[in-house]
Amino acid sequence: MRKVYKNIFGEIISKSNAAKLDEYHLYYYEKDSDLLKEIEFISEDSIYNINYFISENEDENQVFEYLKEKSDFFDVEKREIIDSFIISTNKLYSLSVDELPLISRTVFGVDDPENFICSQVIDNETQQPQLEKTVKCWYTTNENGEKYAAIECSYEEDGTLELAIDKTSDPENEENWENYDYNTFSDLQQRFDTDISYYRTAELLPKEAYQK
Question: Which of 8, 36, 46, 203 is the most buried (most CB within 10 A)?
């Protein structure tokens, strides 16, 4: 593994300089590559959190045993690409509270890995999404060319749209936002040339992604 020390602002620093700081981050990369495997968040010489990026050929139980020796608090992330989407599954452990993790699944576009379009909480027992906790966002740019979540959606227990908040008319003024639900979604669709039917239900990916 290749180690890189960074301060809390993400700037690369030396190991000796890191030792002088109250808090810093230690990045582990695969040897001879830029593939990030692990980030340790360190405060006063103790690891208080770990982000671990697991690959398909790793044993999840072994990774769990390895991480719990380092910290009580860690997040194991697995990423896969389907069609033009990145699906990130996160298992967040807080061992001082419970050995069962909080599981979430988040979808990003391959062309925009910073802004999520769908986030779901997964039930530990059934491994199925708790649809009423799903959040989806549709993005566009404001008058300054900055990208923002123009439509935010929440859902019912059966996965149908509960509320779609349209901010496009006045992104900065909540009083001018418009609300839609499953029955009035067609009115929202008429406001846009882009097909936004994906946002009418809590389905993780658009149907066409499963058909390819």
Answer: 203
DSSP string, 65-95: HHHHTT-SEEEEEEEEEETTEEEEEEEEEET
User: What is the C-alpha separation between 47 and 123, in angstroms, rounded?
Assistant: 28
pLDDT in tens, 92-101: 999 999 889 9
User: Can you tell me which residue has the tokens 């999520």?
Assistant: 116
3-state secondary structure of 123: coil
Q: Which parts of the chain sit beneath pLDDT 70?
A: 208-212
Q: Which residue has the tokens 């859902």?
A: 155
CA distance 156 to 71: 36
Q: Is-contact 5 34, C-beta < 8 A?
A: no
